[in-house]
Specification:
Strand content: under 5%
Largest sheet: 2 strands, antiparallel
Helix content: 55-70%
CATH architecture: Orthogonal Bundle
CATH class: Mainly Alpha
Structural class: mainly alpha
Number of strands: 2
Radius of gyration: 23 Å
CATH topology: MetI-like fold
Number of domains: 1
Length: 297
């Protein structure tokens, strides 16, 4: 077997060892995101139906103060006397859940359309590329606002709306990467042996796209989290009574001078989540570059 044949095969994705992943950024990102996931799991245990209820006697209590009821409020309370620590925990399923469902839709739709455009030629490829270009030309946030205003607010309408609109960048990158992978020797050999189209795309091309999908998935998770918060902030995302981070930011607007912690707490949660996801994306990209250099050598 020749060296070219060996190096042309897709190498495994990213490996973990006892010292970490080999990327400090990825290790830090995974650590931060693991803390968020632990908080997400813990909120199902810690929170009950009364945890998110408010008490007007304890409204606008500062950070780290104990209310008249003897309860310690780590992040203070809001204008309705609701504990902000519990509110941030309660917002995890909304903010991260909506963004997570949306990024899965983005990855699936973008990968499928990119693969179709790379495999077929002629009219099909032209239609795919024109469709991607037309979607990119539309302002994303404005289009999302229009769709959400029509279909209504809620978890699934918001998640599916963002997922069905934001796939264009992923499709373009997957299309470009797939065209390169389709010229590899192992793919050409599979075509010569009569392997079916979908088998080649799923078992030969898709594994080579795994690093790209992971990198873009991490970055898009962060972007969609910001978009979900923006839509909720504008009143077109999660229901007004839902403790999403965007709703919490919206509630804090008229209390910035007397209760700034109402803004800092949800904003800090968003920043922490976005930083962890960007670190994960940068780490995946760094390992992907190292892997590509190792294959070339």
């Amino acid at each position: 077997m020749t060296t070219a044949a060996v190096t042309d095969k897709p190498a495994p994705a990213f490996r973990f060892n006892k010292f970490g992943t080999g990327s400090l950024q990825l290790d830090l990102g995974i650590l931060l995101f693991a803390l968020i996931v632990i908080a997400l799991l813990a909120q199902w245990v810690v929170l009950d139906e009364s945890s998110l209820d408010g008490n007007l006697r304890f409204r606008l209590k500062g950070v780290g103060l104990t209310g008249p009821d003897g309860i310690f409020h780590l992040f203070g309370t809001d204008q309705l006397g609701r504990d902000l620590f519990y509110r941030v925990l309660g917002g995890l399923p909304w903010s991260l859940g909506i963004s997570g469902v949306a990024v899965v839709c983005v990855a699936v739709i973008g990968t499928f359309i990119g693969l179709i455009g790379a495999w077929y030629t002629g009219v099909v490829r032209t239609i795919v590329l024109l469709g991607i270009a037309a979607m990119i030309a539309m302002p994303f946030l404005v289009l999302a606002l229009v769709v959400v205003a029509v279909v209504g607010r809620g978890f699934w309408p918001l998640a599916l709306t963002m997922g069905f609109i934001a796939w264009t960048a992923v499709a373009r990158v997957i299309y470009a990467e797939s065209r390169g992978l389709l010229t590899r020797e192992y793919v050409l050999a599979a075509r010569l042996f009569g392997v079916s189209k979908w088998s080649i795309l799923i078992f030969h091309v898709l594994p080579g796209l795994r690093p790209t999908i992971l990198v873009m998935g991490a970055f898009f998770f962060a972007v969609l989290l910001i978009i979900e918060s923006a839509l909720s902030f504008l009143g077109l995302g999660a229901p007004l009574n839902a403790p999403s981070w965007g709703n919490m930011l919206s509630d804090s607007r008229q209390y910035l001078t007397i209760a700034p912690w109402m803004m800092f707490v949800p904003a800090g949660a968003i920043v922490l989540a976005v930083i962890s996801l960007n670190l994960i994306g940068d780490g995946f990209a760094e390992l992907s570059r190292k892997r590509a250099r190792a294959v070339e050598v």
